[in-house]
């Protein structure tokens, strides 16, 4: 109960708004690593077949929306939990999904293809026996692969983003992948070294759909259907499809200049890297400050004379230190809104996640730091007539905090690195920025090398600052 109350208090303090399906500005999620349907162009703007359809319909039907890019599974769960109003992400319409979503007019018919590394000796599905197939969670390609797995005797490995999946096949860790035909063809146009094995004969052709939570946002769904009928009738829809499937990928991705060198990638994506870095720094600062305050409070509670207060501290530390950070992030961002009836912005959910997780670790070493002070110090203070509280404040805490300084420094660095996990809930920090850039230019090695160097520079600066603070406290 204490934890739920704390979460509710923090969420209200950070300006969370009530769910209102009638609000004029809708929140729409997407998987922005799914070209040619959803991706970032060379100007770091979200584009693709899905996005142009949505943008055109919104303009004609007079509604506005805020786009929230994240992994496909997180995007769909955001809608079912009420965090978002709709999802458009090359989402196949299936009977299972119809149980939880209401779909608009189907807008694109696709089919499943399978691909292998260029030069691979695999020629047919029978050759996959005993081999490993990489699939993307939640996709129609994954469903099809699993449906024929026993027949052809292959193993599967799962990924949440397309670029990592493709590179797993290219690097030989897995031998094939299944996915939507136009998506595979587009990524190959963009330089991915794969070969589609059934380009003219896709399996299980199906339709993509725009989806809202079942029973919700009927007004938005009606507007989409009306707008789609109009763009289909006047030829706008076909122009959009032809624009992305007919032109070379480099026209949208700028891949020719991006691929030239590390400097070229830095120059063409300078704004994206800076925005991602700034978001990472903000998350780190908020996380460090509030997690430290929360951790110190938990540590003080942990050495209280009151056994109930000590028990509360121990329980909170045990729960949040033992819970994986990503699970906690999903619980707060996707699970909690359904309980408290409010939307939680992704940034707010990320900060709360850091506070609870990092604060639990901080609370553990703060409690340990206080307990590490020689017991004779407390006895001496009490013999001088100090109360327990005054003894803690005047004698134990100053000595304990000095002991804890190295632990605080280490926790600050851990907090900075842990912000990368929050990309899973759609926060556009440095790691998510790298994912979006790689999905556009397929230059995983160069982009992730740049990201790694940026993290190392920031961590080095934070370490220098922390060491300076440590020296000042000990002088």
Write up what this structure looks like:
Residues 277-466 form the ABC transmembrane type-1 domain. Belongs to the binding-protein-dependent transport system permease family. Residues 1-21 form the signal peptide. It holds the Pfam family SBP_bac_3. Helices cover 60% and strands 12% of the residues. By secondary structure, it is an alpha/beta fold. The protein folds into three domains: 2-107 and 209-253, D-Maltodextrin-Binding Protein, domain 2 (3-Layer(aba) Sandwich), CATH 3.40.190; 109-206, D-Maltodextrin-Binding Protein, domain 2 (3-Layer(aba) Sandwich); 268-474, MetI-like fold (Orthogonal Bundle), CATH 1.10.3720. The strands form four sheets. Strands 7, 8, 9, 10, 11 and 12 form a six-stranded mixed β-sheet that branches. A hairpin with a 5-residue loop joins strand 2 (39-40) and strand 3. Helix 14 (270-302) runs antiparallel to helix 15 and helix 18 packs antiparallel against helix 19 (388-418).
């Amino acid at each position: 109960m204490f934890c739920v109350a704390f979460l509710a208090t923090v969420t209200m303090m950070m300006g969370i708004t009530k769910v209102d399906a009638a609000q004029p500005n809708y929140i729409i999620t997407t998987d922005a690593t799914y070209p040619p349907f959803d991706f970032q162009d060379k100007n770091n703007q979200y584009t693709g077949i899905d996005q142009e359809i949505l943008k055109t319909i919104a303009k004609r039907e007079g509604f506005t929306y805020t786009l929230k890019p994240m992994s496909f599974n997180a995007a769909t769960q955001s809608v079912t939990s009420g965090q978002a109003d709709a999802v458009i992400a090359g989402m196949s319409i299936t009977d299972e999904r119809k149980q939880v979503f209401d779909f608009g007019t189907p807008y694109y018919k696709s089919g499943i293809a399978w691909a292998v590394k260029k030069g691979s000796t695999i020629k047919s599905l029978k050759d996959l026996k005993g081999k490993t197939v990489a699939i993307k969670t939640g996709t129609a390609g994954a469903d099809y692969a699993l449906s024929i797995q026993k027949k052809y005797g292959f193993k599967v490995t799962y990924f949440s983003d397309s670029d990592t999946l493709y590179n797993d096949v290219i690097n030989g860790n897995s031998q094939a992948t299944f996915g939507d035909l136009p998506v595979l063809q587009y990524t190959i146009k963009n330089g991915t070294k794969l070969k589609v094995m059934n380009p003219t004969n896709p399996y299980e052709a199906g339709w993509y759909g725009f989806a809202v939570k079942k029973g919700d946002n009927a007004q938005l769904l009606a507007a989409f259907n009306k707008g789609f009928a109009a763009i289909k009738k006047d030829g706008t829809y076909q122009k959009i499809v032809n624009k992305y499937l007919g032109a070379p990928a480099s026209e949208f991705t700028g891949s020719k200049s991006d691929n030239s060198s590390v400097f070229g990638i830095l120059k063409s994506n300078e704004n994206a890297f800076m925005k991602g870095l700034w978001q990472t720094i903000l998350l780190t600062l908020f996380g460090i400050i509030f997690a430290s305050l929360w951790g110190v409070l938990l540590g003080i509670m942990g050495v209280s004379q009151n056994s109930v207060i000590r028990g509360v501290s121990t329980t909170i530390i045990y729960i949040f230190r033992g819970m994986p950070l990503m699970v906690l992030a999903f619980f707060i961002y996707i699970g909690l809104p359904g309980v408290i009836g409010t939307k939680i912005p992704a940034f707010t959910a990320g900060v709360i996640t850091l506070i609870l997780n990092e604060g639990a670790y901080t609370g553990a070493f703060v409690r340990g730091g206080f307990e590490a002070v020689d017991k004779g110090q407390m006895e001496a203070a009490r013999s001088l007539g100090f109360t327990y509280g005054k003894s803690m404040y005047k004698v134990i805490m100053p000595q304990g905090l000095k002991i804890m300084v190295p632990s605080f420094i280490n926790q600050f660095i851990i907090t900075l690195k842990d912000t990368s996990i929050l990309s899973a809930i759609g926060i556009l920090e440095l790691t998510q920025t790298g994912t979006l850039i790689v999905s556009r230019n397929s230059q995983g090695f160069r982009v992730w090398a740049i990201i790694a160097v940026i993290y190392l520079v920031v961590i080095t600066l934070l370490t220098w600052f922390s060491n300076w603070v440590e020296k000042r406290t000990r002088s």
